[in-house]
Amino acid sequence: MKTIIEPFRIKSVEPIYFNSKEERIEFLKEAFYNPFLIRSKNVLIDLLTDSGTSAMSSEQWAGIMRGDESYAGSPSFFHFEETVRQITGMKFIIPTHQGRASEKILFSILGGKGKYFISNTLFDTTRANIEYSGAEGIDLLCAEGKKPTIPAPFKGNMDTEALKNIIKEKGAANIPLCLITVTNNSGGGQPVSMQNIKDVKKICVENNIPLFIDACRFAENCYFIKLREKGYADKSVFEIAKELFSYADGCTMSAKKDAFANIGGFLAVQNEELAQLCRNLLIITEGFPTYGGLAGRDLEAIAIGLKEVVDEHYLQYRIRSIEYLSNKLIDAGIPVIQPAGGHAVYIDAKQFLAHIPVTQYPGQALVCALYEEGGVRGVEIGSLMFGKYAEAGGLIPAQMELVRLAIPRRTYTQSHIDYVAEIIIEVFENRKSIVGLAITEEAPMLRHFTAKLKPIN
Fold it and tell me: Do strands 116-119 and 211-214 pair parallel, antiparallel, or not at all (unpaired)?
């Protein structure tokens, strides 16, 4: 196979400011061992998130200039609406300033005490918005998705037997909707098969439960379906996406992921009554329905990005780039989720730092070590992000202890990724010197964003 090249030319660059290990040790102390609190100019390779950090195309920047800033009825909104409708088939398109705003609106209306939202795996802000409403989020990840280093084609799938059982246990009337996240971010960026979506839809229809899609990375998921699922090899990603959304009653999306935008999102539904309720809340919290917390230029950038992301030359490069880093780490004996996901490499911190108990947050300890050694910023997806406390006060750990290295789209080159691999391997070789962490200060929800920690000596 020939080298898969970046399907773009670099037109504008931004400098990276180099610093020393000694300086990074001090920056880490000042940030209370939480990389979210490190200033971005002090980060060499920033893999904290792929959300809003991608490089926009020349066409998107041109769209920024064309954006119409009329308060109501802007042509930029109608361009945005038409593009979203072409891909999702949804009747009612509601723009928001980002994905969590869509979640806030949706779960404020449908949530509440005694309600349950079922998912393959909810991400942090989704779960927080559900819990803030008084409802409970339940993850039903398939069995193979719980085994990080054992490959399987669709480890993001929902466990359909568990879904049937939870509906019987909780009662269909208490489940306002079922939500499938594509790709499954908390589960390692793993894809969901079309067959699984069909199976979940069938169960939802039988129980009169709406099915929604968390569509942040829909194009990456659809490309995996094309590569791995029988009957889809000859279909375009656009065609696969249209089929995927055809099984849904609605969707939310952060356009900061697969639409390449720096800000923005949307909520799209088929039900007119729900759409009206959402728009009413939108006006209170976000803005008028034809801008929804966004500038017209942002709506243009999103519309253009949604068209660009289904290009299969781009998707081939995107998926292969993640696989490239994953394979380098596997060859070095580093435990990562296999196969590679769509937007990030996930290191199994529980295996990587087997000497650190989960109560001392091995994922966060590894994130700090990667920054200290090479200025690489990742994020913990484990018990700091998802852990709970028992009534007696002890930690209820997360299902997995992971470190996510999310690759921004069209931003870094192969040499950057080679450098990241070198740093991870170096840390792995010296892993016994890494110590655990203890929380000194935390917020009641989404604590990982602002928590303060200290090393355990």
Answer: unpaired
Give the domain-ending residue among 279, 308, 337.
Answer: 308
Q: CATH number, domain at 443? A: 3.90.1150.10
Whether 155 and 142 have beta carbons less than 8 Å apart is answered as yes
Cβ pair 88, 268 in contact under 8 A: yes
Of the residues 308, 335, 366, the one at which a domain ends: 308
Confidence of residue 129 (pLDDT cuts 50, 70, 90): very high
Q: What is the Cα–Cα distance from 173 to 209, expressed in whole angstroms?
A: 8
What is the tens place of the pLDDT at every residue in 21-41?
Answer: 999 999 999 999 999 999 999
Residue 344 pairs with which residues in a beta bridge?
406
CB of 246 closer than 8 Å to CB of 222: no
The number of domains in the chain is 2
Q: Quick one: 269 and 121 in the same domain?
A: yes
Domain shared by 41 and 122, yes or no: no
| 186 and 238 share one domain | yes
Q: Is 230 in the same domain as 332?
A: no
Give the Cα separation of 380 and 366 in Å (integer).
8
Average pLDDT of span 348-361 = 97
Yes or no: say if 255 and 264 are a contact pair by the CB < 8 Å rule.
yes
Average pLDDT estimate for 430-455: 96
Exposure on the CB side of residue 419, measured as CA atoms within 13 A: 15
Full residue range of the structural domain in which residue 131 is found: 58-308
Same-domain check for residues 231 and 304: yes
Confidence of residue 428 (pLDDT cuts 50, 70, 90): very high
- CA angle at residue 272 from 297 to 131, to 5 degrees? 80
| Rg of the Cα atoms in the chain | 21
Q: How many CB atoms within 10 Å of residue 6?
A: 15
Give residue 400's identity as a one-letter amino acid code: M
In a domain, 13, yes or no: no
Is the per-residue pLDDT at 1 higher than 80? no
pLDDT at site 306 = 98
The span from the CA of 257 to the CA of 63, in Å, is 18
> Which CATH number belongs to the domain containing residue 146 in this structure?
3.40.640.10
Please tell me what DSSP assigns to residue 267.
Answer: E
**One domain for residues 186 and 140:** yes
Q: Residue 450's CB: how many other CB atoms inside 10 A?
A: 13
Average pLDDT, the chain: 96
Reported confidence tier of residue 102, pLDDT bands at 50, 70, 90: very high
* Average pLDDT, integer, range 390-398: 89
Residue 82's pLDDT is what? 98
